[in-house]
Predict the structure.
Amino acid sequence: MYVTCLDMEGVLVPEIWIAFSEESGIPELKRTTRDEPDYDKLMQWRIGILKEHGLTLKDIQNTIAKIDPLPGAKEFMDKLRAKCQTIILSDTFEEFAAPLMKKLGMPTIFCNSLEVDSDGFIVSHKMRCSQSKLTTVKALQSIGYETIASGDSYNDLGMIQASKAGFLFRTTDKIKADFPNIPAFTEFDELYEAICKVIDEK
């Protein structure tokens, strides 16, 4: 039995922090896990910038409400979920993801949560578990599932390398150069066909 595990931002939807960077006019917020592999460090840095500029969770949610899935992502998810169980494993937060999941047809997502103060400012982030993507893939394997994984960033490499098959999707040239052994795709049809080939192997 197979479960496909997918990253969310950069794979199925645009990068939330890049969209918010453009909306807020704060270029520093364009930094993502493609640039900074240490997610805790990245989030603490982001929270500091938000506080410095007086921006709340609601400000970010207002931007997210305008974000649509990447072209073809909803159709890809519909086909893939008809083929096998599919879970989105993301380092994003429940407070960000909910409206995007509605636009993707309500797939299952495992992500994290935010701590917000009474004035609506983000004060900290709570990770579901350490190395959540890799930990989740290993947990699925421990109960009898084969996993297939795909993502675009450094924080996806653990789950990709630990799975029976793993693929990079719309990643950076640097990550492709650093990990030439991982097949890399840019189109949803290519990724779907690669996943199906693994599942259909006898």
